[in-house]
Each structure stands twice: as C-alpha cells, then as structure tokens.
Amino acid sequence: DTAVSQTPKYLVTQMGNDKSIKCEQNLGHDTMYWYKQDSKKFLKIMFSYNNKELIINETVPNRFSPKSPDKAHLNLHINSLELGDSAVYFCASSQGLETGQPQHFGDGTRLSIL
Amino acid sequence: QQPVQSPQAVILREGEDAVINCSSSKALYSVHWYRQKHGEAPVFLMILLKGGEQKGHEKISASFNEKKQQSSLYLTASQLSYSGTYFCGTDIGDYKLSFGAGTTVTVRA
User: Fold this and answer.
1) In chain B, where do the E strands start and end?
2) Residues 6 or more apart whose Cβ sits within 8 Å of residue B40
3) A-chain residues within 8 Å CB-CB of B43?
4) Which of A102, A36, A106 is nearest to B31 (CA)?
5) The architecture CATH gives domain A4-98+105-113
6) Does B96 contact A44 at a Cβ distance shorter than 8 Å?
7) What b/e string do you get for B73-90 counting C-beta neighbours within 10 Å, with b at 16 or more?
8) Checking phi first, is residue A97 left (phi over 0); if not, alpha (psi -120 to 50) or beta?
9) CATH number for the domain including B23?
10) What is the pLDDT along chain A (114 residues), one digit of tens a residue?
C-alpha cells in the first residue's frame, strides 16, 4: 500500500492552461505539505495544512491554490501555467506540526510546460 | 533561512567514509536528513532533536551541535546503495523545514 500517493505522475501542458495535482495519504497523519523541486534539485515548501487548516503559505503566486477536503487529501490547482512552473511537485505528510516528526513524501508529479 | 550544506558533491569507492555538513544561521529545534535517488522521492533517514535525542532507522549516523547550529551526517563503510542526493532540513520552530541545496554522493565499486 502506497503511503503518500500523487496523481498524475507526469503532466505535460501548454502555457496558460489550468491543471490540478491530487495527493492522498493513508498514514493517518494530520499535516500535509506541497513542495516544489526545481531543476537544480532545490526543495522548497509551498504550503502546509494541518487538519484541513492552512498553516503555511510561502510567498507562492496566487495562481497556486491548495485545497484540503479532509486531512487525508491535499490537492493543488494551478491557473494560467507559466514556463517557470516547470518542476517536480512533491506532496508530503507528517504526524503533526511538532518538532521531530519525519515527513513522508509522495513520488512526485513532473510538470512540464511547453 | 536555507541551511548551507557542504560539500556539494562527493565521489567514494565502496567501503570509504564521508561526512556531509549542514549549517544554519538560526537556532535549531531539530535537523532532519533525507536521501533522494534520481527520479524518486526523498526518503527520511534521521532526525536529531534539540537536547540530543536521535531518531533514525538506517545504518548511517549523525551528530547535532546545538551551540554551533550545525549537523553532520556520517556515511561509514559506504555501499553502492548509499548513492543519491542527501538533504538536510532544518526546523527553527516555525512549523516547516527549510532544506539545504543537497549533497550528491556517488559510490563506485
């Protein structure tokens, strides 16, 4: 059983389009995250949710809108895609916000903008 | 806020040792270490907590110097499976991890 699953694994689309990425975790964790990893492998947090409540929003353009329908799911919708959005997007989860909780990552969604 | 990792890359032969360093400009609550293989997700290795507690499940050790705001990851008697990019993630008590730029480790037979 996959602990943190993301769909789709690959997303190739044109500039200006709108797309969504879905994430689900079956670990019973309270906290979920979205990270962006660029071509230089720099891993940067975008958002985090704890029990469906937005906790962190890291100066991400408002074209990116996360939604957490329940604590096991965190989706990411991106409007008006730009070339600079090309990256790998990772979803992750952890038991809580407390210090010392390991994060479990999904396999990533590779987004390519043409 | 991003921690500084060094070295950027290291090449080892099987059986050799290596040290990866992670340094923060801010006081740390904990330091996390993850390994990412090419095309895969980062995988948790270890957490080092303020106060000295250590959590991990790999045969890889680490240290945490709270005063110097530094952590080091020790790869001992490296195996081919140790190849990958190692990231430290630092927690300054703001409910998120800030990751370093990564250290690429290549272990050759």
Assistant:
1) 4-6, 9-13, 18-23, 30-36, 42-49, 54-56, 61-65, 70-75, 84-91, 98-99, 103-108
2) A107, A108
3) 105
4) A102
5) Sandwich (2.60)
6) no
7) bebeebeeebbbbbbbbb
8) alpha
9) 2.60.40.10
10) 679 999 999 999 999 999 999 999 999 999 999 999 999 999 999 999 999 899 999 978 999 999 999 999 999 999 999 999 999 999 999 998 777 889 999 999 999 999
Please give the structure tokens belonging to residue A61. Answer: 């353009």
The residue whose two tokens read 């293989």 is B37
A40 to chain B: closest CA residue: B101
Q: Which residue has the tokens 């106060």?
A: B51
CB contact under 8 A, B40 and A97: no
Q: Which of B3, B5, B13, B7 is CA-nearest to residue B82?
A: B13
- The total of structural domains in chain B comes to 1
